[in-house]
Records
---
Amino acid sequence: MIHFTSYAEKKFEILNRHKVFFTREQIEDTVGAPEKVSKKGKFYFAQKDGIKIVYRKDDEIIKILTFYPKKP
């Protein structure tokens, strides 16, 4: 199960104001099938199609903390 934190929910609006548009489906797809994954402490970083996502795993729940456009 994927859960978006309240900040992650607000991040859609924040990025939209800067003309950067991502959908929930893109975020979920990136976490589900990333091109690259790394871990630092208890945080995971997934990347795919120009998106970088920071998340945490709590048992079977994936909590999306934030996401942003990945620099080329």
---
Amino acid sequence: MSAAHVRRQVVGRGIPLPGNDIDTDRIIPARYLKSVTFEGLGEHVFGDERKAVPEHPFNRPQFQGASVLIAGQNFGCGSSREHAPQALRDWGIGAVVGGSFGEIFFGNCTVLGIPCLTAEMSDIEWLLREVEKHPDRPVEVDVERREVRFNGRAIRAGIPDGARHQLVSGSWNSMGVLLDAGDAIERTAHALPYVAGY
């Protein structure tokens, strides 16, 4: 696999998003799902909330360019739209740390190469407070070691073995896996009578 697909660590400034049960319709409102591609979805991430609440974290200048989202419990619940992680990625999010995740949202993030790690809510609450106070400091999301580090503190984090393996090996990128296996696919195809002829 290409080294560009490996996600052993994601390091970047954090953006705190307090609250539980933030669903995919809040992440990307349904009216933005009409496009044929996912391009440009980032500008509409949390579109309704950002209009209603000017101080929304995704509006605030100190969090622009942040790449590690700190969320609460059950983040990404609700409908299965893959537009939600696509919009977050397009905005610049490269990893999410939360109390728990909607199952389909978690899977959609993994196939996009966005690690989602869980931590105890006491640790999440500490991260939310500290990132708010120190928006210029990096959050280190260590997928390989199952750890999140910030401001001198290391937090134990969880991620299922399968997702962790896909991310640290780069095999989350199914197209990359197919391209890497190109020669083997060709050999197999030429050995099949219905492809190579009788």
---
Amino acid sequence: MSPETFDATPGRLDAVVARRLGLSRAEAQRAIAAGRVLVEGLPRPKSFRLAGGERIGAELAGMDEVPAEGPGVEVRYRDEHLIVVSKPAGLVTHPSASRRTGTLVNRLLGMGVPLSTLGGPLRPGIVHRLDAGTSGLMIVACDDQTHEGLVALLRRHEIDRRYLALVRGVVTHDRFAVDAPLGRAGARISVHVGAGKASETRFEVLERFEWATLLEAAPRTGRTHQIRVHLSAVGHPILGDPAYGGGGDDAKRLGLTRPFLHSHELAFDHPATGERIELEDPLPADLANALSELRSEA
């Protein structure tokens, strides 16, 4: 992409640049923050007010590139078609319009993992996601044919995904399911009866404590924040999840600084070889320590 120069119209710098160059506001802000946009030869903040007529220069070449970065992530399975990794908590899955670094995709590229192209330039290889605060097993496609096969398995509910969740309160039923449609209002997901997307999660009690319960969650669908919202909706939010009611003193008592939600088991038929893949991922130290603390109180 060649450098762009143009005369400004009145308004905020980020809004003017986005409108003139056909970018999203987030993309314009990222270019400004990177020093790639100059006003009369000088860098200005995104909120800089343009009177109109100023000469704007924008150099956007390479802005769409997703750089390879370290450190790597732990690998639980790998062949020429796909890789299953243990995503650490706090790591965003893939880049976005406003962010090109610090994601799982960057780390996979840094490890030299080939990634499928079907997800687009910002989501190479990504078949399904884990929230930034969720840890555990994730499947990533290394080629387009395998990507298509994995998506088909997900659509047919033929990838068995199991999560460990520690929730507030004592859950009465040993097994139960939540079948409640989910919809988005800004950044927040909630149950939208009659208007949201169909969502189902099955739960099984693994261990009960005086004021908390350890559950295994098996989502049938893959909606954003699905397990977290479904548990909040039935009055048992995940401990350490302030966005959906699981924060406060109980979470602090266990030293939780993120939701106690971990993708601990995956099972599926390999779309290229037909081999049955069954994997487990142990609890990371922060969640294992919280569970030990809770058991010590019993």
---
Amino acid sequence: MTKNILMALGLGILAGLFALPDWLYENTGLLMDLGLCLLLFFVGIDLGSNRNIFNNLRNLGFRILIVPAGTILGSLAGGLICSLIFDLNIFGALAIASGMSWYTLSAIIITPISSELGTIAFLSNVFREVIAFVAIPFIAKNIGYLETIAAGAAISMDTGLPMVTRNTNSEVAVISFISGVILSLAVTVLVPVFVGFMA
């Protein structure tokens, strides 16, 4: 699966550089939205066909919050470590880490305070998303199913959900969606809070 993802990414880069006509390039956003909607539709069918999932989740209760909480703490710890390694403003590094793959929002919030940190936020969150796509099959096979959710963070409810579903099981897919919603909401709170300390 990882080979297919890397091959598709490589072919996309080559097509964008050499072969993509302008009219198609102008509509790539619409095509991606349609593709994502189709993927999520089929994931929904898979989830809906397994009625035991929701009963199992009810038994988990508040323990389901451990996954997004761990993802947030791990991301912030990574931000702190990077602030020391790269001599970044500590709150800037925490704001970047709080983006959790939502590169458009985090970069927009950070850029008015620091265009340099805004660029870093954009790139680091894009790289996190791309690395998650490549790493999720490996993580599922060698580390654990729940850890696949943390790899993608906020994308675990949309673009990353089909990858998680394909490499884990339906129950983890539901946890992934719920975690993705919580993490996306956390981005809207954490990034502005840390940016506020930078100002």
